[in-house]
Amino acid sequence: MTDFLKHHKFSILLILTGIAFYGSFAYDLNRPDFIKLVGLYTGLFFISFKLIQLEKTNFWMLAGAAIIFRLVFIAATPNLSQDFYRFMWDGQLILEGNNPYLSVPDNWKEPLASLNLTKQKLIQGMGSLSAGNYTSYPPVNQLLFTISTFLGGKSILGSVIAMRFFIVLADLGTLYLGRKLLLKFNLPPYQIFWFILNPFIIIELTGNLHFEAVMLFFFTWAIYLLHHKKWIWSAVFLGISVSVKLLPLLFLPLLLNYFIRSKKIENSGIHALNFKKLLGYYFVVGLTVIFSFLPFISSEFISNFSASIALWFQKFEFNASIYYIVRWIGFQLKGYNIIATAGKILPLVVTLILLGLAFFQRNNSTEKLLKTMLLAVSVYFFLSTTVHPWYIATPLLLSVFTRYRFALIWSFLVVLSYSAYTDTGFRENYWLIGIEYIVVIGIFLLEILKPKLLSRLPYYK
Q1: Residue 62, H or E segment
Q2: How far is 258 from 251, CA to CA, in rounded Å?
Q3: Angle, helices 272-293/139-152, rounded to nearest 10 degrees
Q4: Which residues of the chain have pLDDT under 50?
Q5: Dihedral (Cα; 324, 325, 331, 336), 10-degree rounding
């Protein structure tokens, strides 16, 4: 024990400091206090990446630190996001035998006094934007909301703790599978800690209760099984991942070359057996997703859920990059916000890019497939009208399996988007958003076009 303390005393000091910083973040931070938020966030990034640098060969110390940092949040109410109130609302409706997709919370609050105290708190806590729209969370996510709400009883904190348990468990699963994949790819296994020990992941997923953690666990499991040629189970878990969050649907076209070019017949562009496997894979993914939606299916559900998804493209705006430039040009030419038009055109551009990557990128290995997925999801977010901080979890995880590091930098700079929340209301700081995306997109382009220019920087070696 004495030798251990002697050889790891600085790392232990970093962990103790990290506990104090995460404690302050979890229990003594208000979202409008942007200076304190950035200060703590920067300190935590230094602590985590210094730990990785010092202990890259000590898996259990890094894993232990990641678990300890998450446990700091165990009894904390999320302070950077209100979404958990909506999670609990949906879960409560299901427990009462109601379909959460068929009504908006605002429909229930007249008169508000007629609701029990917990429901009143949930409607008030989620805010007017969430309370005025249909839910957009897929069925597996709803299942987790329901279980968490049941376990929490009438206690909001109890439900928060239950949700946090699922998210931490999912992160540990990603740690286990991600490390095994890195070993299969002959990459340093410590790279998984760029995700697991990243303050962005700990704060946004464990702290603020975003279920990207669960989606990414099932996604990683699907990729792990795909790499081991277990097509059917891979498709099942990818379908479950989609039923947590819809984002993995984006990756389905990219599987085209992975299946068809993996064992191409001489003088033939398509291997018939592999093409059948591809169609079978899509069928199993689709069947899994449809099966998860069956308890809720109705014409009204389809209408409401589609309308809710469309809002993200044609109404909501936050922390966007290229879209904000398009919007500015629209104001100059049209004199009004063109989101209704841009929100329809930009997804078509993303679709064309995806098809280009699907047909022309040689994704004939799992490593190449993950790289293409990273490029695809990043372009999707660069063209999106809304990029909440926790969305960056997906490109960050994918980047762990590649030589690209722009997502790592993005996971730090995305904190600048929180400058929009002030004591006087919501107002985005476009200068800070500009800094975020000039750096991120700049490094993204350099890594693709001129990677040698970055070879001397940390984490590129």
Answers
A1: helix 59-71
A2: 11
A3: 40
A4: 264-270
A5: -30
